[in-house]
Specification:
Layout (H helix, E strand, L loop, with lengths): L4 H7 L1 H12 L30 E7 L4 H4 L4 E6 L12 H4 L2 H4 L6 H13 L5 E4 L5 H11 L8 E5 L5 H5 L7 E4 L6 H8 L4 H16 L4 E2 L5 E10 L8 H12 L4 E5 L20 H13 L5 E4 L28 E3 L8
Parallel strand pairs: 2-3, 3-4, 4-5, 5-7, 7-8, 8-9
Antiparallel strand pairs: 1-2, 6-7, 9-10
Helix pairs in contact: 2-7, 6-7
The structure holds iron/sulfur cluster.
């Protein structure tokens, strides 16, 4: 199964989409913040990002879902800056330090070379982490990398605070959507992530992703994802994430067949200690409650995480090797909830 962007490249559509997306930077409405700034002229909006992509790390990654990690790792490209401000962001060193991230600015050609370098390392996919505010630059880079031989599936690994018109321009380019559905209450999204319209925006975005590639997750003979939708949900303490309503939305407004990746790895970092309700890890009871909801809503497909997952996988982007396994420690495994549930 070849990545769908190959056909778009052959027809010339990849270039046309890149041009259309780059035009949107003139009055940026790339994400639901709708800042309206002219990023082509150096203005910046909420995400502090101009026209050049900010690439903070390019690494094979061994802590993603098994169908993305495989044996040689997901090919992660971590983009700097962000269109949200999660007080608990574990990647805060690169997502909320816009001055420091200036040193990680690259050209679009440099981004294309990063994609090709991950392919040369044997990675199974290109996993675009926090891509939302750089979608135009990503598609422009793809239009360079594909003629040079890029053949890996694209994973769009997002906070789900995405714009539907922009996602439509990714139709037939992205093969695997990996949104993290973070909240079901806008008051919580505003308080903890400065995203007061998150619920409507993220649900519309995930519905569009589902329309494009859902509900099945297609694997190749080696068990690697080639196309589909995986929705992550990070459980937060004191029901801040609104897990019940997030799972209800997935089951009732998308499909119980959707593959869900339930994350237990929350730990207070960044500025989380300043807000009482989110200043601790989740409790075993809170995790067990959400596991019961999977059954209640008939969500059988996907993965759950070891409850002790907070002890591994904490990145340090100030280090030349940001992830623990680069020092020899294996990441916590994600457990398949129903091994026969994947389609291939
Ligand atoms: S991508 Fe950045 S500048 Fe554009 S609307 Fe979103 S936050 Fe604002």
């Amino acid at each position: 199964m070849t990545p769908s962007y190959l056909a778009r490249n052959e027809s010339g559509e990849l270039h046309r989409r890149a041009e259309r997306l780059m035009e949107l930077l003139q009055a940026c409405d790339i994400c639901p913040k709708l800042c309206g700034v002219n990023r082509l002229r150096g203005e910046v909006g909420f995400c502090w990002s101009g026209v050049d992509p900010v690439v903070s790390a390019v690494v094979p990654h061994f802590g993603e879902e098994p169908c993305l990690t495989g044996t040689r790792g997901a090919g992660n490209i971590f983009f700097g800056n962000c269109n949200m401000r999660c007080v608990y962001c574990q990647n805060w060193q690169i997502s909320q330090d816009w001055k420091g991230q200036r040193r990680n600015t690259v050209s679009i050609e440099g981004l294309a070379e990063a994609m090709l370098a991950l392919q040369d390392k044997g990675c199974h996919n290109i996993n675009l982490v926090s891509p939302t505010h750089f979608v135009p630059q990503i598609v422009a880079a793809l239009a360079i990398a594909v003629p040079r031989g890029l053949r890996l599936p694209l994973v769009y690994n997002t906070n789900a605070y995405d714009s539907v018109p922009v996602l439509r321009l990714l139709d037939g380019i992205v093969d695997i959507y990996l949104p993290d559905l973070k909240y079901s209450d806008n008051a919580m999204a505003r308080e903890y992530s400065v995203a007061g319209n998150y619920v409507e925006a993220s649900r519309d975005a995930v519905k569009e992703m589902y329309r494009q590639v859902g509900p099945d997750l297609v694997l190749d003979d080696a068990g690697l994802a080639r196309r589909g939708l995986i929705i992550r949900h990070l459980i937060l303490p004191n029901e801040i994430a609104g897990s019940r309503e997030c799972l209800r939305f997935i089951a009732e407004e998308l499909s119980p067949a959707v593959h869900l990746s339930l994350m237990a790895q929350y730990y207070p970092t960044n500025k989380a200690h300043r807000k009482d309700l989110i200043s601790r890890k989740i409790r075993a009871r809170e995790y067990a409650d959400v596991l019961e909801m999977l059954e209640e809503f008939g969500l059988e497909n996907g993965w759950t995480q070891e409850f002790a997952a907070t002890e591994v996988g904490r990145p340090d982007f100030a280090s030349a090797a940001p992830f623990a396994w680069e020092g020899g420690i294996a990441p916590a495994p994600l457990t398949l909830t129903r091994p026969d549930s994947l389609t291939g």
